[in-house]
Amino acid sequence: MKYCCAFFATPFSLHPVLTGLRYCPAGQWFIVSSTSESVSTDDQHHAQLLRADLILLGVTLLAAVSWMFSKEALNEFPPLLFMACRFSAAGLLLAIPGRRALAALQPHEWRASALVGLFFGAAMSFWIMGLFNAHTLGEGAFITSLAVVLVPFISWLLFRERPAKSIWVALPLAIGGLALLSLRHGFNPDPGQLFFFAAALLLSLTFILNGRAAARISALALSAIQLVLVGVVSFTLSAMFEDWPDTFTPTMWLWLILSVTVGTAARFLLQTYAQGLASPSHAAVIMVLEPVWTAIIAAFWFTERMETAQILGCTLILLALLANRWSALRRWLKR
Q1: Could you give the residue ranges of the DSSP H alpha helices within the chain?
Q2: Domain that holds residue 45
Q3: Is position 11 within any domain?
Q4: 274 occurs within a structural domain
Q5: Residues 130-151: pLDDT tens digits?
């Protein structure tokens, strides 16, 4: 099963009923007629994989930069109001290229998409509260990334789907990493860590539900619905618990526009395009870099410095992510 959300999109599948064609994992079909053409096809295949890897690398950078945009926006924005504006606008932007797919959805597909969107909205509400209370962005990025490690474990608990053996290596590493982050001064996790971990739990459940919905719904339509619903959930919570500013300052508009366009819409479209060129294993491995880039950017932009225990904790979580994707990593290295 492939899990996806607005940030981890399921690549589109091709099912042509054709003969005399050869399929490559990059999602392209080539006519096989001679040895020279086969060599040419292999060259094209490797070129596409390289292009996909470079684009996905750029996507991880955009994801990390979006953490910076969001943190800067929270200097003036109420956190939930910021999420409401950011995700509603991004969802409407994606609805433009996805309007035909949205119009073709059946009522049960709308309901499935809405369910995923509600869980995603709850997850992102916890995430933004974690970011609002965070002392270290890099630490928050690594805790949130645990959602990927938790997916097979929660899927096993709820749906009895047997996880890969690698999860039993990844899970102890992840727990050890969390322990180092939260036990630096006795068991005293700060609110930001708790919000980030709650977001990771909800995101893992979102990925599972999304993987089931994405098998039959256009990724673009599904993501547009999800993003808008994140905005609706955040707007509702913001109206209940936050005081809104009388006006938006130019700085607020700047960070909001960058978050909507660069951090959300452009990032999703580039990731979808790149995953159409490569196998899922490429994205699975390269997307591990997001928390690493986030920590580096936070150190540069906010002059954040981690304690030794934090560095060790984040390193263990990174190893857990790599262990969780070991089979994909091994295929990627053997290319």
Answers
A1: 35-73, 79-95, 99-103, 107-133, 137-144, 146-159, 167-182, 191-214, 219-241, 250-260, 267-277, 280-286, 290-301, 308-324, 326-333
A2: 21-333
A3: no
A4: yes
A5: 999 988 888 899 999 888 888 8
